[in-house]
Specification:
Helices cover 56% and strands 5% of the residues. The protein contains ten helices and four strands, in the order H-H-H-H-H-H-E-H-E-E-E-H-H-H. The chain has a four-stranded mixed beta sheet with strand order 1-2-4-3. It is elongated.
Length: 237
Amino acid sequence: MDDLPPAFSLWRGLLSALAGAAVAGFVALRFDAPIWVAPAVGVAIAALAYLIATRKDRRRRRVAARPFPEAWRAILEEWVGFYRDLDASARVRFEREIAIFLDEQVITGPRGAALDDELKLLVAASAVVVVFGRPGFRYPQLRDVVVYDQAFDDEYNVKEDGNILGMVHGQGPILFSARSLRQGFRGEHDGRNVGYHEFAHVLDFEYGRADGVPGFMPWGAIQPWLKEMHSETAKIE
């Protein structure tokens, strides 16, 4: 599980130990207690601090270690061409990322309505495909995802002539049309996958504004990225 956090985090361990030592020092100076009390309190505080600091990483490792449901695998096989094209080891990593995303992410229909596994997996696959080339990457800010039955308008009303297939802002939920999400995976190589499109916007909005540059990109890569982006955009236009 090289793409997951290590079982032990050295820097978090050191910070926790420092916190424990600081509390132990305070107890030793302020209270007339037996000599063993301050070290015991320090150890307890260090352990608690470490457990709190690593709770998300430990949960992710537990989720990743669970057997991947065969029903989910069948849905990915049917719908996600990217997954079908992966070799065996890459499929395992893809499935881990899917499981972690679904564990952490709220995905519902309008007003909290339940969705079937197929739609949830298409949302998760959209998110994972976009960042699969960066092992270990996690979306910096997870948002609720709301999936409408069909396209919708600016007032979020579902209608046959709705013109919005998906939407994401700097804050707030990610919105999809279920019909468009499915259509995007049926024609996955036509460049019209609304799932990929909206999760690319999520990365773009990491620092609150959309400028076409993902927030995680190193400064030295920005200019080559912009040049390539403008070149590819010109081909589309």
